[in-house]
Design brief:
Layout (H helix, E strand, L loop, with lengths): L6 H12 L3 E5 L16 H13 L5 E4 L1 H5 L4 H14 L6 E6 L3 H14 L4 E4 L9 H4 L5 E7 L6 H4 L2 E2 L2 E2 H10 L8 E5 L4 H11 L4 E3 L9 H8 L7 E5 L1 H4 L7 H19 L3
Parallel strand pairs: 1-2, 1-10, 3-4, 4-5, 5-8, 8-9, 9-10
Antiparallel strand pairs: 6-7
Helix pairs in contact: 2-4, 2-12, 8-9, 9-10, 10-12
């Protein structure tokens, strides 16, 4: 990865050249791996590598979730996977889904982990502790910092929907992220596909800022209303993530082919609703 380009530069290039807003989430679970991989020491790497090779033509990004690897002492496989993507698909952004939320020297270590150890293009972070919890990541001027804003889980409204100075708290987060927090110009926001009207609200606040949108596929978010709500005027601006519906589309030695078919269908369904 060359430091002359930023995360958003790479993202813009991927949106354009690949004609896709789809992101494939890489969340390997032992119990769901095809039987022929389950006994291997490098099962997670091999599973994800095959998914990556099969789905790369249809995506603008990949998003490995760190907990699925670290829970099984497979961080070395995650490192190898991100390196593999960077070597074989140079410039295709990898977003490390870690949702870090600490401050000070601890946050500095998390930033170092994401950007120096794993060499991710971007990382997800939790803003609950305010600007202090984001600043160490912004020190990496070319890297993406994707802030949780309006999440797709049922309990998200417990805090995100609280009224704060006449607006919802998630709207305040969006406003801060698009304004005073965005010192590097590389911030994005996580906004769940289960709330299309709130995607539209966030878009109206943040302009062309990238939105990472989980929740389509297995979580039930509607593609058409998601794209309509969140696309920018040039038909981009979104990283629409699907994980389980794609990576577990098949469970035999043809699992990667099945994943490719679902990825292509999902990309095409997204593209049908884009205004180019």
């Amino acid at each position: 990865m060359h430091s002359t380009m930023t995360f958003i530069d790479y993202l813009n290039a991927a949106w354009t050249s690949r004609k896709s807003l789809l992101c494939v989430g890489l969340d390997p679970e032992f119990s769901k791996l095809p039987p022929h991989l389950q006994g291997r020491d490098d099962a997670f790497f091999e599973f994800c590598r095959e998914i990556v090779d099969a789905t790369a033509p249809f995506v603008c990004a990949f998003k490995p979730q760190i907990a699925y690897f670290s829970a099984h002492r497979a961080e070395d496989q995650l490192e190898a996977l991100i390196k593999y993507i960077d070597v074989h698909y140079p410039g295709l952004p990898v977003i490390l889904d870690a949702k870090r939320g600490d401050i000070g020297s601890t946050a500095e270590q998390y930033a170092k982990e994401a950007f120096e150890r794993y060499r991710a293009y971007a990382v997800t972070v939790n803003p609950y502790m305010g600007l202090d919890s984001i600043t160490p990541y912004l020190e990496y001027q070319d890297k993406g910092v994707i802030v949780l804003c309006r999440t797709s889980n049922p309990g998200g409204s417990d805090l995100q929907f609280l009224d704060f100075n006449g607006e919802r708290l998630y709207q305040t987060v969006a406003r801060l992220a698009a304004g005073v927090w965005n010192t590097s110009g590389q911030i994005g926001l996580v906004v769940g596909a289960t709330f299309p009207s709130e995607i539209a609200t966030v878009r109206s606040i943040v302009g062309d800022m990238p939105l990472l949108v989980p929740g389509i596929g297995a979580q039930g978010g509607d593609i058409a209303s998601t794209v309509t709500a969140g696309c920018t005027t040039n038909g981009t601006g979104m990283i629409i993530n699907s994980s389980r519906a794609i990576i577990y589309a098949g469970n035999d030695d043809q699992f990667a082919t099945a994943a490719a078919e679902v990825a292509k269908k999902t990309r095409d369904a997204i593209n049908e609703r884009r205004v180019w």
